[in-house]
Design a protein that fits this description.
Elements (H helix, E strand, L loop, with lengths): L1 H22 L8 E4 L3 E5 L8 E6 L3 E8 L2 E5 L5 E5 L3 E2 L3 E4 L4 E4 L8 E5 L4 E8 L2 E5 L5 E5 L3 E2 L3
Antiparallel strand pairs: 1-4, 1-7, 2-3, 4-5, 5-6, 8-11, 8-14, 9-10, 11-12, 12-13
Length: 155
């Protein structure tokens, strides 16, 4: 009797783990897209007739929550939610500065010169990862290296 009860509990626990793995979102499994146009309108719902909430610039990363037709519902680095048309985004490795006054350096380490400083909320395309450093490019062409804890999503 004890053996069959354990077996049932074991199957139940396995089933619960499978359901949680499939149904619960995880940042590791989340889909990230990035803005591919110079400026994208962020709407309150899926449609051009929905209120314009704000605008974002090229390379702005977005974590997809759901898809509705040709629209993506997303969350950004501050947890704000909005909707963007599929034609304005693409699968691209991108990050955004999540801290104030982030040093962008000439190489992957603090021994390298600071080439510029970025405010919080500046998006970049990821060019390369080297240990905990990320080589990034801004839409204006500026490039450099940033430490991975200064950006969202963390790489």
């Amino acid at each position: 009797m004890l053996f069959s009860r354990c077996s049932r509990y074991s199957r139940l626990i396995t089933c619960i783990i499978c359901v949680c793995t499939i149904c619960l979102p995880s940042q590791g499994l989340a889909e990230f897209l990035a803005v591919k146009v110079p400026i994208a309108n962020i709407r309150s719902g899926p449609g051009e007739n929905q209120d314009l909430l704000w605008k974002v610039e090229a390379y702005h990363p977005l974590q997809v929550i759901e898809k509705n037709g040709k629209w993506y519902h997303f969350k950004d680095f501050e947890g704000d939610e909005g909707w963007v048309h599929f034609s304005l985004v693409q699968k691209m490795d991108a990050v955004i500065t999540a801290k104030e006054n982030c040093n962008i350096r000439s190489g992957p380490g603090t021994k390298y010169d600071i080439v510029f400083t970025a405010e919080k909320g500046i998006p970049f395309k990821v060019l390369k990862n080297q240990q905990k450093w990320i080589k990034v490019e801004h839409a204006d062409g500026d490039t450099g290296w940033i430490y991975n804890t200064l950006v969202w999503p963390n790489k």
